[in-house]
Structures are given as C-alpha cells and as structure tokens.
Amino acid sequence: MAPQYAPSLRSHLAPMLLVLQLGFILIYAFYIEIESNIKVYGITFSNMYPEFHDVNVMVILGFGYMCTFLVRYGFSGSGFNLLVTVIAIQWAIILNGIDNWYYRGKIRIDLKSLVVAEMCAASALISIGVVLGKTNPVHLILIALLEVSGFVLNEWLLQTLLKVPPLNSIMLLHIFAAFFGLMLTRILYRKGSEQPFEKEKVDRKTGLFSILGTLFLCVFWPSLNSVLVDNRTPGRRLGAVLSTYLALAVSAVTAAAVSSLSSPEGKLNPIHLQSCMLAGGVSIGVSMPAVHQPWEAMTIGFTAAVVSTIGFRYLKSHMLLAFKFHDTCAVLSTHGLPGLLGWLAHLLLQIKDCDDHTRIPLAIRFAVFHICSLITISLSLCMGIITGLLLKWNFWRPPQDKKCFDDQAFWEFLHLAVQK
User: Fold this and answer.
1) What is the 3-state secondary structure (H, E, C) of 368-408?
2) Could you tell me if residue 3 is inside a domain?
3) Is 1 exposed, middle or buried (0-12, 13-18, 19+ CB in 10 A)?
4) 21 in a domain, yes or no?
5) How distant, in Å, are the alpha carbons of 118, 148, 271 from that of 125?
6) Which 8-state DSSP code applies to residue 268?
7) pLDDT tens-digit series, residues 130-164
8) Domain interval for residue 250
9) CA atoms within 13 Å, Cβ hemisphere of 241
10) Is the residue at 36 inside a domain?
11) How far from 6 is each of 13, 136, 187, 188, CA to CA, in Å?
12) 1 in a domain, yes or no?
C-alpha cells in the first residue's frame, strides 16, 4: 500500500514566509532606526548585552530543545521553534514601537526593545507548546502573529489605561500564553484525542535532549526575571536574580520529592523534573515586584512545584477527558497554574506589607491588580477563540491524525525517500 503523505504546503508556506519577510524589510527600511543615544535611563550596551544574550539563549536554545521530547518530532520541535521565534521577534518590535512611531514618525530600537520583543516571542512559544505536533508550520506562524498581537495589546491596555509598570504587565506572559493556548487547543480539538496519538511518544534519547533545554532555561531564567527591573533602585535587580535562583532551586528539589511520592513505584518521573522544576521561575516572575525576602521566594518556589507536579500528574488527563483540552506540553501545569499562583502570592505579600497608613492606596492597587488579571485572562481567551476559528479553515491543510507528531510530514529525509 502506498504511503499516505501529508498535504503539500508549497503553495501556502513559501508565499507566506516570503510575503511576511519582504513586508518586514520594507517596514524596517522606512520606519525603524537604531537608538542613537548611548545611554538611556541608565541602560548602556555593556550592562545590557549580557542579559540580552541570556534571554536569547533561553528563547532559542531553551525552548527549542524542550520541544524535542517527542520521538518522531524532534526536527519540527526545534526547527519550527526557531522559525516562529524570528518571525515573532520582528513582528513584536513593530507592534511595541507603534506609539513611538505615532509621536516621532520613527520606531527607535535598542537592546531593551529587542529583549521585550523576545519575551513576546516567548509567550508565543509557550502557546504553541499546547498544540505542538498537531499543526503545520503555516498554523504556527499564524498563531505566533495573532498571539503576539494579543499580548502586545494586553500590555498596552495595562500600561496605558491602568498605569501598570512594564515589568508587571510583561511578566503576565505566562498567564496570557497558557490560557490562549488552552482555548486554542479546545477549538482545534480532534475527535479521538482521548487516546494518545499513534506517534505521541517519548524515548530516552529525545527525553535527554529535552532535559538539556530545561537546563538552559534554569541557568538563564534569573536574567529573564531581572532584565526589566528598574536598575535605578539600588539592590532591586540583585534581589530579583537571587529570588529567582532560590525559587528555581527549591522548585527542583520539591518537584523531585512530589514526583517520587505520586509514583506508585516511588520513582522519579523525568518529565516532572523537566517541566515542573521551572514552576518556581514562572511564579516568582509574576510576583517579583512584591518579593523582598529570600524566604518569600523559596516559599513561592516550593508551592509552585507542588501545584505544578500534582497538576502534571493528574490534571492533564482529566482536562482532556472532561473539557477536551489536549495539552501536548502540559503548559497549564508548567506556566498557567504557577502564573496564577504567582499572582496570588503577589496579592498576599502586598497585604502582609501594608499598614494602617497605606490602606487606601493599597485598596486601589488591589483593584487595579484584579482588573489586570481579568483583562489578561479575558483577552487571552478571546484571542485564542479567534485564532482557533481561523485555523479550523481547511484551506490551511491541517495534517491528518496519522501524520501528527511526525517529522516526515514536513521535512525531507533522503535516506527515507521512496525510490521510483
């Protein structure tokens, strides 16, 4: 019997990539210039470049290697991650500079704007993890463009209407990305997904590469959480680095303990250590402005790992059976729940630090904080619905169920080519 190939994307993928890239080149040619000031708000090239480098490694290598855990989807997991990243960064730079263009006629970019764009791209990569293996590259590009657009819109609403600091609004990327992805996978649900797909498997070699991605993320996560902290406040950036490191350390230890306790044989689950040990970094990033003591960061890391590991062990299958959320990378447990926990920790720490003289301003901050979360979740769900409805159109040629999680559907392997 002749092999059943996935639909060809030649007439869709190549034109889309060429049109997008040529359009970006034209926009950059006429409307974007490099910031000429050597020093802006205390930021210099020498003290910003190392942190930009760290975030760049996280986005490209960390997320890229993490997506190689599927036994027959390693090329696609890492290759499509790079493709989506570079497109999302170019698009995010344009969207983040619209205000600048409106007032000055030009979008001025520097290392900080590039870092913010990479964080926007990271939110798209998190969302794509929910539908990893069940979509084609055209789908992924559309998801990245729409998700980044929604996230930048959410950031603009929070900073413009509610006067939320950039650090607080951007660090909601974990919550926005997780709920965007969940709604997207609900709209794109495939019948029969209650049972694992034929090729949705993990082996030792691909699992080892995926853990390598986790190691990259752990090493460079303190830079992600501290890069946007106001450097003019003494000790704040150092505090952010230390808090993130401690939260990640505690999260790794706790994830190992809970994984062993939840296993019938008392063994460690490598997927738990790979994903759930990052929960501390997610939670501490969302709650960073309110964390001032090491024990607070460690407590947040401990709680985040417990919630994430238990969610990974039990919630993923129940979400699939009850609500038809097929979450490939367990993004809800890795980013969504820890992000919500960080939001709650931020609230509780503000209450702990308040006194009688700050009750009225604190009440105002509480109201703004709740509105921020409500706007973020609502907008992410709406954007997920819009994106899902767009992608359900058969014009985009989705892969058949038998070709999901399969590199051969999109990549040319000469040693596997059919001889004519």
Assistant:
1) HHHHHHHHHHHHHHHHHHHHHHHHCCHHHCCCCHHHCCCHH
2) no
3) exposed
4) no
5) 10, 10, 19
6) P
7) 999 999 999 999 999 999 999 999 999 998 888 88
8) 45-189+198-403
9) 12
10) no
11) 14, 10, 22, 18
12) no
